[in-house]
Amino acid sequence: MRKSPTIADVARVAGVSKGAVSFALNNRPGVAPATRARILAAAKELGWQPSHRARALSHSQAFALGLVMARPPELLGADPFFPAFIAGVETELAGAGQALVLQVVTGGWEEEAAGYRRLAADGRVDGVFLSDIRHGGDPRLALLEELQLPAVTLQRPDTPSSFPAVTLDDGPGIRAAVEHLAGLGHRRIAHVAGPQQFIHGFGRREAWEAAVRTFGLEPGPSVVGDFTAAGGAAATRRLLWDDTPPSAIVYANDLMAIAGITVAHELGIRIPEDLSVTGFDDTELAGHVHPPLTTVRLDAVGMGRAAARTLLQLVEAGSAESVELPPTELVVRRSTAPPGDPASVGRATSR
């Protein structure tokens, strides 16, 4: 196996000391411009690459950032937000010579806390991303302060936090979806919500209820799902089997909305003639289902990139400002239309 070139090899080819090579390759002062150019040319000729392990030891840094996910592993692949978010993070980290350490825990708060403690104790990461911020107080904030581990939160916690946040207002998108449906003539607009222990699940439900009341309507029934296809399907069946089923459903993410469309098809309910549906996320699949899904656009890749830049700055400089991303917006496709005969939904579900 071919041995990777070392600093000693670069020094030999450039005709300088190893110390001069180290200074030049780390862009430190004390090396003449002509000598620096000769060293860089020798490194390029040999195909020399920096050793992240050596770099970490010399700087007392891990050159890695962490993401602890307290979700079953099988759900991570099903939720399209996280692959897109991670893609955004990796785009920034690759250019900065950093790595992402992903840790999945499934055993509740004690296992999750132990995961953060291991990352801090082992020095495996220089900071972490906090996703799925808990509504009503997130215990991870105090834990990370205790561990002195830098963090960036995805959305602003609803209790005091010393960490910068990357925020995106879900409200405008949800309000636009309700306004669109009300403008089409819908009067019974239901909601399939995300988990209410998460700020984004709770906030989207609040935005739906406030928007419905703004148009002088009583909020239709709301059923809590879990952001999965199975959860969305089960919630949709509950709504459609109701004695007075809704004429429109606002879903808290695309995955549940697409599952809801499938359930409606199975029950003989036409989309959008009998039932209008909106989603949230504008995932790639949203434009390719039948019919194409009206949904709220959220830039998960952009959120990942912004979170990575913010956390890198926090680790490097010791402080970073919070970032507010452009608000969500509605993308209208063919899953919404004026309401049809309400009795048609009842007839279909009674077959």
Kindly report how far apart the N and C termini lie: 69 Å
SSE order, as H and E? HHHHEHHEHEHEEHEHEHEHEEHEEH
Mean pLDDT across residues: 88
For the sheet with most strands, the description reads: 6 strands, parallel
Outline type: elongated
Structural class: alpha/beta
Helical content band: 40-55%
State the main characteristics.
alpha/beta, about 45% helix, about 350 residues, six-stranded mixed beta sheet, 12 strands
SSE layout and pairings?
Layout: H1 7-14, H2 18-25, H3 33-46, H4 52-59, E1 64-69, H5 73-78, H6 81-95, E2 99-104, H7 109-121, E3 127-130, H8 139-147, E4 151-154, E5 165-167, H9 171-184, E6 189-193, H10 199-214, E7 222-224, H11 229-240, E8 248-251, H12 254-266, E9 276-281, E10 294-297, H13 300-317, E11 323-324, E12 329-331, H14 342-349
Parallel strand pairs: 1-2, 1-3, 3-4, 4-5, 5-11, 6-7, 6-8, 8-9, 9-10
Antiparallel strand pairs: 10-12
Helix pairs in contact: 1-2, 1-3, 2-3, 6-13, 7-8, 9-10, 11-12
Descriptive notes:
It is built from 14 helices and twelve strands. The protein has 351 residues and is of the alpha/beta class. Strands 2-1-3-4-5-11 form a six-stranded parallel sheet, with helices on both faces. A six-stranded mixed sheet has the order 7-6-8-9-10-12, sandwiched between helices. Helix 2 (18-25) packs across helix 3 (33-46). The longest helix has 18 residues, at 300-317. The termini are far apart. The relative contact order is 0.12. Residues 53-59 have low confidence and may be disordered.
